[in-house]
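Sequence dictates fold. Next comes a concrete instance:
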Amino acid sequence: MRVLTQASHIQISPIPDSTATEMEQADTELSPATPSRRAAAFGVHIFTALGAGVALLAQVEAVREHWSAMFMWLGVALIIDAVDGPIARRLDVVRLQPNWSGDILDLVVDFVTYVFVPAYAITASHLLLPVAAPFLGIGIAVSGALYFADRRMKSDDNHFRGFPGLWNIAAFYLFLLKWPPALSSIAIAILIVATFLPFWVLHPVRVERLRWLTLALMAVWAVLTLYTVVQDFKVELTVTVVLCLIAVYVFASDAAFRLLRSLKS
């Protein structure tokens, strides 16, 4: 009875005309779900799934030990992953194709291209200690699978938590630097452990802080990476140094900014 008495004193006022107008405008701004628009939206899912097919081609080249060709295909997969999101948002894929999860599809393809194929390449490359290579390969696959299932993998400001499972990039630097097998094995083991450590790595595109600098460095990195792969990793020392410095910026810049803030406070 007390609840009913309180409810009886609640005044119900009509929705202001301005609010109704805004809602009507929002509805009219939505594109009609025509068959052609639905088909275009589903085409984005096909485009994303194409990354899995590209991963298969990369795997074939890896089995043949055609490493440069493998990295070329992984680069194509990276481009697909970079552009499918903006296209999906542009075509309103979530609304027009609600039965298909672009997020899950993206994670499946990313696991294959970012983790599984590179894990095989790292294991079979003869760049690690023979006794350690299969165990480290398993560690890459298992830690990568766990990372992609971690709901804490990204912060509110678009930083990755821990080593972000970029094993395609780790494999690239492994082939570029060609350290002694013992040192390479230690480096891979450290990255596996770093997958679960609470530090932050910036997203090369989505982090707003110094985005102009990050995007410029990513453009330089893309050009030098393509040059390195075309040259079958036989490049000048200057190219190697620049690529390593850019990697340090991506992985350590957030820690540097946090340290500076702590010193100022």
Observations:
- The first strand starts at residue 159 and ends at 161.
- The chain has one domain: 35-264.
- The radius of gyration is 24 Å.
